[in-house]
Design goal:
Bound molecules: 2-acetamido-2-deoxy-1-O-phosphono-alpha-D-galactopyranose, zinc ion
Structural class: alpha/beta
Distance between the termini: 51 Å
Radius of gyration: 23 Å
Largest sheet: 5 strands, mixed
Strand content: 15-25%
Number of helices: 18
Shape: globular
């Protein structure tokens, strides 16, 4: 392979437009789409090299800026088992994205040398994108990066982030996880969901009606595809289908952070279940408005507790010895953590923000449930758990058979808004619960998130799963001082990995206290 080709592409088509340093963060590279062409091309190059290092395994590349506003885009790489790019390669990605066009050829040669890559070996890259208008242009840049290094590239067009993870795993396991196609994905999830539902579409307080906010993103399109194939087993009405701007006053992030109903949703009967996904459909939150017009949020913590409780029950019913754990981040509502530890008696772990940390920790359990408060999460099952459940099912255990269907409705490869939603609908239906029954499990502590613009957000460094500030010196003591003034107060700050801001989180016994605490801490950071 002649590395001159890489340089020629870079020089002629994908010149670097900005010299600002960028970093492969919690969700890859993100920023204004106008400046991303060169980064995309380079990530195509990198994915090809990554595949070669791993013996030609399929590497995924997803083009999306998730819940960010429309002008933004981004790129993240998916490792062969569906996991986020290995941390050691995040550093390689950052270096590759930051060198000048003139240095690019040399940098690629360096990666090849340091990782002993056989450039003539086979390489397979899958690439997909969300529905932003600049995504096709950026997808072409990724594909050109692969082609410049003579790799194989397969384009999947418009897909959700979790579909991309699914394709990668399905391909690398030679179909054992399902077929690596769009139909394969629908078939796997829908078959399991319909079997779990049977003909009992309503049960107890559970009504078969769900209003779906698609955030004007790819989740809306795919939900419509699900509906076409589901035989009316779930009655879903889709809103924010793509006519408006992606994530603009709608979507899971808006609903969670603003704690408000998204735009363009109809005025439904009180207590109607509503669900919001984000722009690339890897996050999901539920909400409803009660008979007094009060808005209620059922966020990722709620979903996690509902699932953990249900799965614990399944384990018991099957008579199996399996340890189940729940993984959260510091953003989890304190009341949810109390509920899990004291009521559900499930072990809880807290890790830094970012799916890779949650996923990694969840692997330590036979059954690991992980969720960020914002609605990103899933469940992963160890081989041991799967084998025991399969064995029990083989011996005729009805509960174990049901458990296998539950596993199939879950997209274990990454948080998947639609798969999570199908699981929640299954559980609510089985329990005969409406949103009020669900909300009644525990009462959220009032909480608030603020964004603070500072000159250099990276002067803030943290420890203990981001709950304690290490630098600037003295900041943590000051936060402690502020928190001590409020009943059940808790607050922490950290630099965002996806936006140029410092995030402030606060919770306290009352809404007023929580607002006041967030403000106090915001001032300290400023
Ligand atoms: P940052 O910007 O690092 O806080 C946000 C979310 C993460 C994760 C990533 C990736 C919060 C507080 N943070 O990260 O949980 O979802 O985006 O999309 O919600
Ligand atoms: Zn997302």
């Amino acid at each position: 392979i002649n590395l001159r080709t890489v340089y020629a592409f870079a020089r002629e088509m994908y010149q670097k437009k900005s010299n600002a340093r960028i970093q492969y963060g919690t969700a890859g590279f993100r920023g204004n789409a106008d400046n991303l062409d060169s980064t995309m091309f380079r990530m195509g190059v990198l994915a090809t090299l990554r595949s070669r290092v791993l013996g030609g395994a399929v590497i995924g590349v997803m083009i999306t800026a998730s819940h960010n506003p429309e002008p933004d885009n981004g790129v993240k790489l998916i490792d062969p088992k569906g996991e986020m790019l290995d941390p050691s390669w995040e550093v390689i990605a950052t270096d590759l994205a930051n060198v000048t066009d003139q240095e690019l050829e040399e940098q690629v040669a360096k990666i090849i040398k340091e990782n002993n890559i056989d450039v003539s070996s086979s390489s397979n890259v899958y690439v997909g994108m969300d529905n932003r208008y600049h995504s096709p242009r950026l997808l072409k840049a990724v594909a050109d990066g692969v082609i410049a290094l003579k790799g194989n590239v397969k384009e999947f067009g418009i897909v959700t982030t979790p579909m991309m993870h699914y394709y990668v795993v399905a391909a690398n396991t030679k179909g054992a996880y399902g077929q690596p196609t769009e139909e394969g994905y629908y078939t796997k999830l829908i078959t399991a969901f319909n079997a779990l539902r049977g003909d009992k579409l309503e049960n107890g307080n559970y009504r078969n009606l769900l209003l779906f906010d698609g955030a004007n993103g790819v989740g809306a399109r795919k939900m419509l595809q699900f509906i076409k194939r589901m035989n009316n087993t779930l009655n879903v009405e889709v809103f924010n289908k793509g006519d408006g701007k992606i994530n603009h006053e709608c979507g899971a992030d808006h609903v969670k952070v603003q704690q408000k109903v998204p735009i363009c949703m109809p005025k439904a009967d009180p207590n109607t279940r509503c669900v919001s996904v984000d722009g690339d459909a890897d996050r999901v939150v539920y909400f409803f408005t009660d008979e007094n017009g009060t808005f209620h949020l059922l966020d990722g913590d709620r979903i996690a507790t509902l699932i953990a409780d249900y799965l614990m029950d399944m384990v018991k019913k099957c008579g199996l010895e399996l340890n189940l754990g729940l993984v959260q981040t510091a953003y989890a509502n304190g009341a949810s953590t109390d509920y899990i530890v004291n009521k559900l008696k499930v072990p809880v772990a807290c890790v830094p923000t970012g799916v890779k940390h949650l996923h990694h920790k969840a692997l330590e359990f036979d059954i690991g449930v992980y969720f960020e408060a914002n609605g990103h999460g899933t469940v992963i099952f160890s081989d041991n758990a799967k084998n025991l459940i399969k064995k029990a099912a083989g011996e005729g255990n009805i509960n174990a058979k049901q458990f296998l269907l539950i596993i199939d409705v879950i997209n274990e490869t990454v948080g998947d808004a639609i798969s999570d939603m199908l699981l929640v609908e299954t559980i609510l239906n089985h329990k005969g619960w409406d949103v009020k029954d669900w909300l009644g499990c525990y009462e959220d502590l009032p909480n608030l998130q603020l964004k603070v613009k500072v000159q250099d957000r990276n002067v803030i460094t943290t420890t203990d799963a981001e709950r304690i500030c290490v630098t600037p010196v003295g900041l943590q003591e000051a936060i402690n001082g502020a928190v001590a003034n409020y009943k059940r107060g808790r607050s922490f700050v950290r630099p965002s990995g996806t936006e140029d801001v410092v995030r402030v989180y606060a919770e306290a016994a009352t809404k007023e206290d929580c607002e006041s605490l967030a403000y106090d801490v915001g001032i300290l950071v400023h």
